[in-house]
Sequence to fold (178 residues):
Amino acid sequence: MKQLLLLMLIVLPGLNQAQVKLSKLRLQAAHTNYPYRLLDAPRETLTESESTYKITKNKVAGWSMILLSGMIDGARDVYSIDRTVFEQLWGVPPKSYFGSLSWTKYHDNEVSFYERTTNSANDFWHHSHDLSVVLKISGGVMIALNGKPKWLHVLIDLGVSFVSQSLGYNITYNWLKT
Fold:
């Protein structure tokens, strides 16, 4: 019987610990002519840290980054609809960082070639996109730094992330749109 179990472990490497225990029970039941029932299988209990969902500092930091990313995306979408939104709201010049013509100063040779080629954050449009992507990736990593959670906990984390992204987006979009 031990050889059969060892062969199963070698041939089927995808078996996890619970499947191996279940296979042992089936083999024992077949060997002793005892009718095997699923209720006789040993139940694996989760530890307290595995069974309860916890909000950690890493998760809060990650969700905050994702919320901020959503706020930046909302501002960027309003800016893409109406490039003069910051000029009207704050009175910034058209060729400033937030201005509607901010991209032209890099194409009209107003700055050096070195500054043009090394500065990807030369205006709000490009900088907001870069910052938003970095915040989303960093927020996801911060949320994932919690060991090996259950799938339900991962789904809860994803749901909270989507809600925080949407909330941040709508707050900024609606504030700038009015």
